[in-house]
Amino acid sequence: MPNPLITAWHRVLAQVARRERTELRVLLVSLGVLSLAIAFVYVADNVIQGDTRDFDERMVRALRKADDPGEPIGPVWLRDGALDITALGSPTVLGLVVIAVTGYLVLHGLYRTGAFVFVASCGGWFLNWALKLAFERPRPSLVPHLRDVSSSSFPSGHALTSAAVYLTLGTLLMRLATGRLAKFYCIAVAMLATLLVGVTRVFLGVHYPTDVLAGWLIGLSWALMCWMIERALERRAGLKREQRQYQKRD
Q1: In this model, does residue 248 exceed pLDDT 60?
Q2: Whether the predicted pLDDT of 10 surpasses 50
Q3: What is the maximum span of the chain, computed from C-alpha positions, in angstroms?
């Protein structure tokens, strides 16, 4: 028969170990957010100073045919595919995704989790609007745009909001999924979607590479911040309990 004192001591040690792992994880993520913010400031400063102009213009021109700047390199299906993929980062598609996911969570009784996803996504859109208003960088005029655009160029709204929304949803699905492979799949798909959306913006001639890079940096840092907030709200708001109840029903 196990000794009650030894069992209680082991339980205390396990709780301390879990707390230490959680604190270490939060510390590492905090350092990651800080590093991403510093990298964004560095990119933004170089853009303002004009130090990235040669690189940006060279990359945009490299994706067009030398004899016809209006035609992108590669076969026709590549252009059609880029137009389809870039729509994954549009406000319409992202808005529908957020509404659909929020509705699904609410219908399954995950009210707090659904509210968190909605607020985190709206925060990403607001951040994008504020940064565009602050920098007001003109769109590339070197080549004809293959997609109609109206807002300013820096940072890329498609890159920022797709990173903020898809990576936030990816980390959420990782928490709900069971099994290491399923968790890896959720975050891998989110990262791939974010990557492809950003690349298509340069390919279509509507953004400079530094616009997309800045959008990725801010979007990723926002997703990481949302992850930290979600972790902090687990005990206070019951997000963890909601997720466990959902997993038990399945």
Answers
A1: no
A2: no
A3: 84
The angle subtended at Cα 119 by Cα 115 and Cα 124, nearest 5°, is: 150
Across 134-143, average pLDDT: 88
Backbone angles phi, psi at 71, to 5 degrees: -110, 125
Alpha-carbon distance 169 to 167, whole Å? Answer: 5
One-letter amino acid identity for 29? V
Place of tokens 């959306």: 197
Q: pTM above 0.90?
A: no
Q: Residue 226 has what pLDDT?
A: 83
Q: Tokens 């019951």 — which residue?
A: 238
Question: Using CA of residue 184, residue 185, residue 189, residue 190, what is the dihedral sign?
Answer: negative
pLDDT at 213 over 90: yes
Phi-psi region of 50 (alpha: psi -120 to 50; beta: other; left: phi over 0): left
Distance CA 210, CA 187 (A): 24
How many CA within 13 A on the CB side of residue 159?
Answer: 26
Distance CA 101, CA 94 (A): 10
Phi–psi pair at 147, nearest 5 degrees? -150, 135
d(CA 178, CA 249) in angstroms, rounded, equals 13
Of these ranges, 65-79, 196-210, 236-250, the one predicted with the greatest mean pLDDT is 196-210
Query: What does each C-alpha distance from 172 to 137, 149, 207 come to in angstroms?
Result: 33, 31, 30
Contacts of 48 (CB under 8 A, 6+ apart): 135
**H or E stretch at 64:** strand 64-65
